[in-house]
Amino acid sequence: MKELVISKRMETVAGLVPKGVETVADVGCDHAYVSIKLVKDGIADKVIAMDLRKGPLKIAANNIRQYGMDKFIETRLSDGLDKLMPSEADAIIIAGMGGLLMKDILERGIRILNSQKPPVLILQPQSDIREIRRFLFGNSYHIERESMVYEDGKYYTAILAACGSDESLYDETELLYGRYNIVNKDKVLISYLEKEEKNISDILKRLEGVNEQFDPANEDDLQENAAGHSSSGTRKEQRIEELRELLKVNRIAYKRCVTGGEV
Predict the structure, then answer these.
(1) Integer angstrom CA distances of residue 110 from 85, 86, 106, 230, 258
(2) What pLDDT shows up at residue 210?
(3) Could you give the CA distance from residue 61 to residue 130 in angstroms, rounded to a whole number?
(4) Any long-range contacts for 139-142 (C-beta under 8 Å, 24+ apart)?
(5) What span, in angstroms and rounded, lies between the C-alpha atoms of 65 and 116?
(6) In this structure, are strands 44-51 and 120-125 parallel, antiparallel, or unpaired?
C-alpha cells in the first residue's frame, strides 16, 4: 500500500476528530484523503465520504479502493448534508470552503444538529470564521478546541465543536480570533496577528493619505464632490472606521496572546 500524504491543513482537520468515534461524515470530501487517513490511523471505524460533484467522488472511490478501504468508507453523492440521516454520524467534517457556504450547509442540515444524537463538528472555514462561531453558539454548540496552521502562504483555523451551551459568552475579540488560541497563546495565531496588523496599518495609511490630499479650496476637488463623489467619500470614511476598529481588536488579541492582559 502506498504511503498516504496529505497537506498540513488537512492533517490539522483529521487531528481534531476525537479518537474512537464510530462514524464520521466527510462533507465535501474531494478525493477522500482525509476519510482514508481517519480509518487508516484508527481514528474512526467508518466514514461516509460525501461530495456534490460526481468527478471528485469517482476519484475518491478509486482512491478508497487503492487503499483497501472499501469495507470502511462509503461514498455518497450529496449536496451538503442532504443525504445524511439524523444520528447516522458521530462526527461531521466540513473543510475547504468559505464560511458562508459552510454556514448555509449547516443551516440546511439543521435536522442533523438537532437530532437525538448531535454530532461533533470539525470545521475549517476559509473565510468568515466569525460567522461560523456565531452560528455554533446560536445553535447550542460550544467550541472545545481550535487549531491554526500556516501553509503555502495562508493561515487556516480548524474548530472542534460539540453540542452543549457554553455559559461564558465570547467577546468580539474571541469571536474574530478564537478564545482557545488566544488563551493558549498559539504561535501561529500570534504570527497571523502580526501580519494582519501590518496589512491593516498599511491600508489605513493609504486611505487616510487620500483624505489629506483633498483640498476644499481647490476648484477641481469641489467640482468632483458636486458631481457625486461625496457618497464615495462617505463609503471611504466608513471603511476607515471599520479598519480602525479591526486594528483595535487585533491589538487586544495580540496583547492577550503575548501577556494575557488587555490594552
Answers:
(1) 11, 9, 6, 44, 38
(2) 66
(3) 34
(4) 139/106, 139/110, 139/113, 140/164, 140/165, 141/113, 142/166
(5) 33
(6) unpaired
Per-residue model confidence as pLDDT tens digits over 232-243? 668 889 999 999
Task: Compute the distance between CA of residue 16 and CA of residue 188 in angstroms, rounded to an integer.
Answer: 17
Residues 6+ apart with CB under 8 A from 157: 124, 125, 129, 146, 147, 148, 178, 181
Q: What is the distance between the terminal CA atoms of the chain, rounded to a whole angstrom?
A: 54
What are the pLDDT digits (tens) for 192-231? 999 999 999 999 999 988 655 445 455 455 455 544 555 6
Residue with the three cell numbers 476519510: 35
- Please give the full DSSP string across 51-83, using - where no structure is assigned: ES-HHHHHHHHHHHHHTT-TTTEEEEE-STTTT
What is the C-alpha to C-alpha distance for residues 101 and 110, in angstroms, rounded to an integer? 14
- Residue 47 is placed in which grid cell? 466514514
Give Cβ neighbours of residue 30 (< 8 Å, ≥ 6 apart).
51, 56, 60, 96
Note the maximum CA span of the chain.
78
Report helix, strand or coil for 161.
strand
Quick one: cell of 244?
Answer: 480602525
DSSP result, 23-46: EEEEET-TT-HHHHHHHHTTSEEE
